[in-house]
Design goal:
Length: 67
Amino acid sequence: MEFSELLQNLLTEFGITQAQLSRDTGIPKTTISGWLNAGRLPDYQSIRKLCIYFEIGADELLQLKKR
């Protein structure tokens, strides 16, 4: 599973939009859109924010461990 798929699954699971994730984490909406649509990957700070927000470890977020 690609990062974009995993992130989309998390958004669906948590019932939130890209805009809400952006507001809650301070990550620009254009950055989140890039992850979902352009195959971009998050930097260290964004990974940290996403892990805290979704309450998952980096290994899970980066698919080093299966959900």
